[in-house]
Amino acid sequence: MTAPKRRLLGALAAGTLALGLATSAIAEDKTKIGFIYPSPVGDVGWAYRLDEGRKAVEAHFGDKVETFAVENVPEGPDAARVMNQMAAQGADIIMIGSFGYMNDGLKLAAQKPDIDFMHASGYKTADNFSNFQTRNYESSYIAGMAAGDVSKSGVLGVVAAYPIPEVVGIINTFALGAQRTNPDITVKVVWLNSWFNPSKAQESARSLIAQDADVIFSLYQDTPSVVTAAEEEGVYVVNTSSDMKKYAPNHLLASMTTDWGPYFIDRVQKSMDGNYDGLAYWGGMADGAVGVVSLSPDLTKEDMAEIDSVIAEMKAGTFHPMTGPIVDQDGEEKLAAGESIDDDSMRGIDWLVKGVETRIPN
């Protein structure tokens, strides 16, 4: 059980956060919630979807809450400083929106048991420190099926952020989905080691296209730069987090989407009620937390019928994308026929499936 919630007494002085935190006078009975994003909010992408979740909290709770956000905060000392500043300003809840914020956030949570934390994409929890993920490996399997359907070269390219387990799992199911509809598919990956690097992401996309990739997957690049590059080059593209159809009206194959609103609302309510917990949330298609939109009209009726059937199975809980027989890049059996990976193994996955040509960096 968490300690009673702190409430801000008095008014906040303007300009107290060096990174641009807007401040205002907060009524004593309001719950104050800070949001930290690793990239600019923009109009699409990861930070945009997190901020849509923040707006959903405001719409649901009205004048019971006061929210504020700081965007484009690098992982490391800058993130730790912003978290501490939010705590000093009387935040009751802090949402930290990047995997790399985890250890600094957990340290602060231990020091401030009266503040509740929501952490994106991590794996550590405490009484006042929950984490949340979505089962994007489900939607990436569907996107992979579509990629296998339309690819003529048999080569898919992935512009990936970091080689963390969540990203590795998404690449795996993207490859498996593609191999379901086109068994000869191979996948090449460029690791950017960045959530937001538009120029490098676009350069990487063009490099993959030069290596015969005719479907490009923009994986956790919080920018439409890969999508626009694919549109310009005339190849299909898949992206994560939000619908980017407007950036590739002719060549968007599919957009993987997320919806954080219901989860954020639930967490805020628990905090208000004084019964916050270290819940590890992993929402999927069955929860409406992930989906696939703007599927290309180039997919045939037969293609769409198979895709719709697999989506229905995922929603019903009768199909897991990581179901054997599955072997890794070295031919070692990882899942026997009919065996599905468990959640703990999926959260920590550190191997890539056969057909993915690029290795995980050391």
Question: Quick one: CATH superfamily of the largest domain?
Answer: Response regulator
- Tell me the fraction of residues in β-strands, as a range: 15-25%
Low-confidence stretches: 1-27
| Secondary structure: number of strands | 14
Q: Can you give the helix content as a percent range?
A: 25-40%
CATH class categorisation of the largest domain: Alpha Beta
Mean pLDDT across residues: 91
Structural class: alpha/beta
Q: SSE order, as H and E?
A: EHEHEHEEHEHEHEHEEHEEHEEH
Q: Would you mind describing this structure in some detail?
A:
There is one protein chain. Helix 1 (46-61) packs across helix 8. The chain has two domains: 31-134 and 259-283, Response regulator (Rossmann fold, 3-Layer(aba) Sandwich); 136-250 and 290-347, Rossmann fold (3-Layer(aba) Sandwich). The model is unreliable at 1-27 (pLDDT under 50). By secondary structure, it is of the alpha/beta class. 35% of the residues lie in helices and 19% in strands. A hairpin with a 5-residue loop joins strand 13 and strand 14 (333-335). It is globular, with a radius of gyration of 21 Å. The longest helix has 17 residues, at 165-181.
Care to give the gist of this entry?
The protein has 362 residues and is an alpha/beta fold. 35% of the residues lie in helices and 19% in strands. The relative contact order is 0.14.
Helices and strands in order:
Layout: E1 31-36, H1 46-61, E2 65-70, H2 77-88, E3 93-96, H3 102-111, E4 116-120, E5 129-134, H4 136-150, E6 155-160, H5 165-181, E7 186-191, H6 198-210, E8 215-219, H7 225-233, E9 236-239, E10 252-258, H8 261-273, E11 280-283, E12 290-293, H9 301-316, E13 326-327, E14 333-335, H10 343-347
Parallel strand pairs: 1-2, 1-3, 3-4, 4-5, 5-11, 6-7, 6-8, 8-9, 9-10
Antiparallel strand pairs: 10-12, 13-14
Helix pairs in contact: 1-8, 4-5, 4-9, 6-7
